[in-house]
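Let us work through a complete example step by step.
Step 1: write down the sequence.
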Amino acid sequence: MTRTLYFNGPILTMDAANSTPEAVLTGGETIRMVGPLSELRAQMPAGTQEVDLQGQTLIPAFIDPHGHFPDPGFIRLFRVNLASAPSGDCPDIPTALARLRVRAAETPAGEWVMGVLFDNTAIAEGRMPTRAELDSVSTDHPIWVIHASGHNGSANSLALQLHGVNRDTPDPLGGRFGRDPETGALTGLIEGLSAMREMGDTDFLISRERFWAGFNSCRDEYLSYGVTYAQNAWATRKMLEHFASLPGGQDPGYDLMLLPIGELEPALTDGPDALDWPGNPHFTLGPRKLFTDGAFQLQTAFLSAPYHRPVDPEHPCGMPYAAEADHRREVKKLHDLGHQIHCHCNGDAGAQMFIDAVAAALEANPRGDHRHTIIHGQALRDDQLQQMARLGITVSFFPAHVHFWGDRHYDTFLGPERAGRISPCASAERFGVRYTIHNDASVTPTRPIHLAHCAMNRLTASGRRLGEDQRISALSALRAQTIDAAWQVFKEGSRGSIEAGKLADFAILNRNPLEDPDRIETIKVTRTIRRGKTVWMQGQ
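Step 2: predict the structure and record it as tokens.
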């Protein structure tokens, strides 16, 4: 068993007391001792390796509390990146079409060409590409361009045909097919998860071979940013089967929590077709995932008051993705089955649907410490946070939106007042709601230090500050991605802080973020340790 001593630098444990010991001793995969350097030296066995931090800072490895691993790997290897500034360099639709045309020329006829991360609010034309424009790229390839939010996309004629959609296809609840207002002809636009169906899944077009290639690519990216534990937070049956293909005794080099789609239950875990889940400690099934609404960029997040500048007169407040009665039934079903629930709720009206459903489920079937969680919660009001505190509901905020879309929240989506409260972390602290923060990769890339900067400084891409009173401290931003992230999914006993008995998962930073909070975004991860072994090091 390899023993390692870490010393000579700040150690931020993220334990209950936020203690800062002199040294940490690990043995194998776990932390053995934390305390004074002299005491650990006296007790460490001969042959112990020593890591001199040389003034650098040791913290628990980061935990991604909400994202879609390994989707970033799929994008890098198999899809056409159409992201606009500030996350990409695709400025307009002609550029997007040219990139798709290059991929089509490299792709055999009949095979799909998929573009991703397209953002109608950041592109010069301010809209999604049309069916006709995508047909101009190719009529021999089905072409599908999905929005950066993952909540809508545009298809060419062949893709629409393969999707089984024509001008007479009715719109499903929570979704719609774009139609020319004069002729009724399909425009190629497909909005909402219910309308996109499998085309909206992150595993769309992903074979078993592609899955593992994407997995390895995403793993290496996350480790380079100090993240050793992440989520696939919308796991289809197909995606779960990909993960389940890992032999039980094999270490894939990464640990994940998988959130199955809530509607798969109880068949997923009970009955003749239940998933055959191997006993592998690296992939675990976690909360079940539900939705109440869509995305701000598409104005499908469900608000209680109209958007600042509505684009759809018929839905000025956005729309729910489910009927309220159906949503309550799903929440009660999962609650009664004993599952934790994570529910995507962007708008405050979408959040209220989930809060009310949880309240009804708890009244019918009280459960202590359920930790049901609102995902995103970007427009949560103070009265809702107070209600959540009473009900034991937690939240994972998306403060990266402040940087990537904050200017458009201010000018178009929410307006100045509501934009100042987007992802209200400080309000959650005031009302005693424990929270985490996330990037929702691949919507925005998993970058824990930059995410902390977003939550602390709340600066848009143009430099405008949104909500001075919602800023949080560096310590809160770090805890929200370490111990609080572990707690949110019932893993606080094994990871998330530097304490004896927990996994030896660490990140080493070149500077102490608590001493340099104003420049936290310039701090770099120099080394990542997973289960006691160095798995990434700067310059290697």
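Step 3: interpret the result. The mean pLDDT is 96.
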